[in-house]
Amino acid sequence: VLVYPVFDLRCNTASYKLYSDGYSLTEKQMQWYANHFLNNEEEKSDPRASPLLRQSFSHLPPALCIVTGSDVLVDENMEYVQKLKDAGVETELVVMKGVVHSYFVLPAFFRENIAFSYAKVADFIKKHST
Question: Number of helices and strands (H, E) in the chain?
């Protein structure tokens, strides 16, 4: 279960430009995180830091990926899920509209969205735990 995960620390997809500011998680914040997580710019292209750049996706487990529609991360999530599907990995993508990154921790604003997401997670775990 992946909730608004980061798959590419190069931070260069179209959604980084489209949602670069004003949608909770900003491009500037992501650059800051990447620069403090890694030793140098070259490491951003290492698949261990940017799993979207893996050579093979075929031996990965089933995945549920939840991301918001107005998130700098949405494009890389869509691309990652497609690579999993292309490799034959059972994968589900849930793009939450009308919420911002980190909505899971904002119940005063997104209670119904959180409940929906929790139900998706619970269903996915039930399906894959037998």
Answer: 4, 3
Fold of 2-128: Rossmann fold (3.40.50)
In whole angstroms, give the CA distance from residue 44 to residue 10.
Answer: 5
pLDDT tens sequence for the chain (130 residues): 999 999 999 999 999 999 999 889 999 999 999 999 999 999 999 999 999 999 999 999 999 999 999 999 999 999 999 999 999 999 999 999 999 999 999 999 999 999 999 999 999 999 999 7
Domains of the chain: which residue ranges? 2-128
SS3 annotation, 81-129? HHHHHHCCCCEEEEEECCCCCCHHHCHHHHHHHHHHHHHHHHHHHHHHC
What's the pTM value of the predicted model, to 2 decimals? Answer: 0.92
Helix/strand/coil for 31: helix
Residue 3 contacts residue 114 (beta carbons within 8 Å): no
